[in-house]
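The authors assume throughout that readers already know how a fold can be written as discrete tokens. Each protein is reduced to its one-letter sequence and a matching series of backbone shape codes. I therefore recommend that a typical entry be quoted early in the introduction. For illustration, here is how one protein appears when written out as sequence plus structure tokens:
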Amino acid sequence: MIELVIQQRRRDLGSFEVGRVLPFARRRMVGPYIFFDRMGPKDLAPGLPPEADVRPHPHIGLSTITYLFNGEIMHRDSVGSEQGIRPGEVNWMTAGRGITHSERFERLRREGGPIDGIQAWVALPDAREEMDPGFWHYPSQALPVFDGDGIVGRLIAGRLAGVESPLQVDSPQFYVHWQLRAGSRASLPAEYSERAVYVARGEVEIDGQRVEAGSMAVLEPGKAVTVAAFSDAVVMALGGEPVGPRYIDWNFVSSSKERIEQAREDWAAGRMKLPDLDNDEFIPLPPKIGRMREPEPMS
């Protein structure tokens, strides 16, 4: 059964829109997943302005997953990584005690074309919040594939239905990309206590309730569900076991308010290393507003 349906909240960034799903007032997290943004879809003309890029900025206490349906983003970070992100590939960046990175639309600026994808954040468990930062890239052919009966799926992270992604995760979780032909049905087992289904394209039915594109259905625990496609559909399913309450302020995630305050001070004082290949500019620390600040889109 569906516990809650979250409609994405759209925000215009000038060159394209981003749809925020998590965090949500009535549901901050699904398993360890604490942030979920849909970028696009949008066809962009050549000459994208520099302001569309995401300049270097910091993170702590989380891992980011960038996954594209269309387009390309260039990632650079403070552990020395420089990697283009393309459709079906996975960029997994673990911030741990602290990392900085940028996201640039260099190829789209030169050539134009579509941009469409998801950025998600996974909160690290208590024992891993201060781990060393790192970055891992996985080509699409490295990920396990589900194929048959009108469904093509790719397991991005974690373990589901006995299949395991090569991507190393820090807590029990799953993240899967399904493409469903009209009339096909996918089964999501009840092996995790928290699960959700986001419809990126098309329309599906879950336990008799229709879920449209741009919506995330948060599922009740303890029962397998069937996702039936009314039309050709693209679906992201995710979830896992909770890691405990988390605070989120700008780009920082932690179990401790004091740790977030320290991260704010470190960034403001220039104590967090910028990416070696992208260190000419950065996003300044936003002012405190008396409460925890939601992340900026495309962070």
